[in-house]
Amino acid sequence: MCANCGFPAAPGHWTEAGADLSSDRLQARFRRASLLRAVLRKHGLTAHDDGSTPGITISTQTGNHEIVPDLAAVWAVAERMSGRPVDPLGPEYVGDDLPPTTCHRLPRGEAAE
Amino acid sequence: MTDAPDRRIPLTLLGGFLGSGKTTWLRHQLHHGKMTDAIIIVNEAADVPVDDMLLFKATDIRVLSGGCACCDGRAGLLALLRDICDQRVDTSYDGARHEHIVLETSGLADPGPIVDAIRSDPVLLHHIVVHEIIVVVDALHGLRYLRSEPLGRRQIETADRLVITKVDAADEKELKQLRATLEIINPAAALSGSVMGSAATLPEVGDARAEPLPALDGGIEVPIIATTVRLEPGADWTAFGMWLSALLHARGDDIVRVKGIVQTPSGRLLLQSVRKVVQSPEILPDHVTARKNDNCIVFIGKGFRPDDLGRSLKRFAGLGVVAKAEVE
Q1: Do B28 and A5 lie within an 8 Å CB cutoff?
Q2: Where are the alpha helices (DSSP H) in B90-225?
Q3: I need a labelling partner for B76 at 20 to 30 A (CA). Which of A18, A22, B63, B230 fits?
Q4: What is the pTM (predicted TM-score) of this model?
Q5: Where are the alpha helices (DSSP H) in B149-301?
């Protein structure tokens, strides 16, 4: 295998490639957990990352939890725990009518561009 | 009667399905000094080209984007080939004269009509000879698209040489079955293996049996489309990664290919995925290619409407896009 004909690859999981400095990486972890909470809330789940322990903790409202190593692993666990897939192309995200929770923030038409 | 040497320019056609590893294979050949004297033509179905920047070792590279050379982009290809021929015979032309053409097709191109078009052109017929059709086949996903995509089969049927890529990523049983299947589809083609462009040994077929491929003729073929989404400057990679990882988990069987460059605080990241597999992003030096296409991400697949991606980015991850998605 040749490792010389390309450009250097970002280390770690691909979803974490956007942060280089340790302070940026920590900030990205907290941001990731915050974004995940917003998405997983609709599935009755929550996400937690304390910034020091490796991985992301996904929990149900009844206290069941599982630690996953990275974002790619989140979705399979979320699907299993909630019983339905998290699909960014599902009707709630691509339907013509904006979901009520975001309707007041997004003028109609803007989201479709 | 004497056998005059054929002075036509040999053309090597490099084809293969979406994400099968064409550019990686070619990049490695160029890195090792092969084909560096050739004029490289890169054809991409999407409007925004990405692959050409990876072929920086080529001395002369031309890009045909926004349509497959076998159909929408055919006229553009023929015009470009005629230009190359004109330059070759123009005594006043002081640019480089190439004695070899390599055409890397888009992953949605059928090599057959391209070869027919070159051979049917009354001018090109006398100046260019199709020397070899090389088709690369992804060891990891090859059997899957052979089952479902007529185009994947047609590409393999046309090959003089088949290169199975990503040999290290597939298990041996699957690799043997893929090899047995390819030998049934195109028994005449030479077969070799590759990992990141380097030659790799293929296992013998042994007692492996070819995949029984379903008949695909007559069914309704769902069209594969190319859609470009331009992220707003300063887009949050964390949010984008969250969205894309979820998207590929849910829809990775339909979204066959994603590629583009995203500007982040840690550099310009070259993003590439094939179905659910995302490569570690390469960090591009600032001097490689203009930045005008940075933050443009190309999605190639089926089962979604072009506008869906922009909507989903906004609603799922809070990310804005700046240009209306386009269908190629």
Answers
A1: yes
A2: 111-120, 124-127, 142-148, 150-157, 172-185
A3: B230
A4: 0.84
A5: 150-157, 172-185, 237-251
